[in-house]
Amino acid sequence: MQDAALLIVDVQNDFCPGGALAVPEGDAVIPPLNAVAAKVAQAGGLVVASRDWHPRTTRHFAEFGGRWPVHCVQNTPGAEFHPQLQLPEGTVIISKGTSEEDDGYSAFEGRTDDGKTLHEVLSERGIRRLLVGGLATDYCVRASVLDALKHGYEVYLLTDAIRGVNLQPDDSAKAIAEMEAAGARLIDSTQV
Questions:
Q1: Active-site amino acid positions
Q2: CATH code, domain with 186
């Protein structure tokens, strides 16, 4: 596990039931992600958690020409990680969608508080394999997985630890097929 990392994508209050942009069953990803995070941390691997961290005024939101309702605004309760998500000590936080011009779908577009990209963080640690789960399958998970593959990482998509928005009923199924076709391996969290 030394060369592996778990990437938890956007398990934030606004994407879980009751949130401003709730993903159906979004909180169902939490138990498998907690289990994998504990295993990875115990084995000395790295856990990374990305978050949408939008300014209040951004072209990402419908009122400014985007497609989404206001969600995950910086320093609001909706932007906080879900309280049941158990992030191990030393988890690296990647904030994305932080400017007025940035949608921030992929975790690879985000940065740590000290300005490092996700790719820089992973490279510094010698990480070659990424386990990925979180929200939402058809947007930020998809974008993050495809970018990880472009960067040359071996990617394992945790199929029981993802849920989609599904603006169209088959959006998540299409996204999973696209990620698999690009080289992602589909596994269950219990296989980690």
A1: 10, 96, 140
A2: 3.40.50.850
